[in-house]
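User: Sequence in, structure out. Go.
Assistant: Echoing your sequence, followed by the structure tokens.
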Amino acid sequence: MKIAVVGSGIAGLASAWALGERHAVHVLEAHRAPGMHAHALEVGDATRAVVDVPLRVFYPAYYPTLMALYGAAGLGTRAVDASGSYARMGEARAYFRYRNLRIVGHSLPWVPPRVLASAAGRRILRDYLRFTREAQRWRDAGSFPATLLGAHLDAAGYSDAFVDGLLLPSFAAIATCSHRHVREYPLAVVARYFTGGFLFASVRRAEGGATAVARRLLSRAASVRLGVGVEAVRASGDGAEVVVDGVAERFDHVVVATQANQAAGLVADALPTEATALRRFRYEPVRVVMHSDLGLMPAHRGDWAPVNLLTDAGADRPMATIWVNAVAPELAREAPVFQTVHPLREPAAGTLLSEARFERPLVDAESGDAWRRLEDSLRDDGRRVWFCGSYAAAGVPLLESAAASALRVARSIDPAP
């Protein structure tokens, strides 16, 4: 079959890899580089290294589909230190900090004595252990409370030190959303993320980063066209059409692997029911800056960690600054370089290296209903236009859900192993 894949984020890449083994897959991408590494930046003086924007790390327990995909494609992964520091803007010291100690292939969290000596630090640690024990009990029982995270935290009497100081900023950074939207997450989604060995997991990243991932997963594609404008997608008899830069091209199937709000525009005229479902997914803007400004890190150098979350009383989300040198060993001897998501202040003049803007889907009741509708559509007889992406699977909208939704679509198009 001749199949078009619109978009080359991880959903498009997974679709191309899965379907390209037996079919002629043609990838169409608006960026001048495959979407997963379209914003990558080369940094360093003596040692040059390409840094993904945004930087992508994952822990295997929550990413089984991604790990299996990388393994099948021959992509290696390596453990990285993703320990964290939590501080408030304007304060001299971080109020919470932990390090990852690697022992015989395991990652063991270690909290320094200074943190344990503070009442707030002890409350954070006590409630974190309580929350993960609760989550594990629900997981073992196979049943999670049908409530929102915020309602449960309030009813269960968790401390402000834990909720506002650790859980909300941590998950806001993971899901790239506001504290308010974290509280509106289904409790089950958040609880599942923090089980499955999260506390002792080794966080990993792909060898060679997004560049290597894109190159390998596109290796089965019959063609990859970059910098093209896809204007519309429509089912047409026993196939589908894609309008590319004003020209209609015919395919047996089309996989739309873009954001839901972008997909809705592509199919609005031809597939109004699907477009309506896709519009129910809401997005929040995300800004990521690469820079060398030490001022966006914790004030005390001893509090620096690979991942640094800084909060401010006037902001409803954390500023997450990744110390790139600590995550990319090849840059260990280079001058400090940082990647900040949602900067609470601008990098100092002369320190900005790059800026990128994205959108991330939100998880709420609307998205849950829309996701179930799209899941049902995979069983429609005669379907020729398909949708996948991080929004299109249960759970936190991350690389795992994007890959899982793409592989489900691939199996629906071609059930053969």
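User: And one key feature?
Assistant: The chain is about 35% helix and 25% strand.
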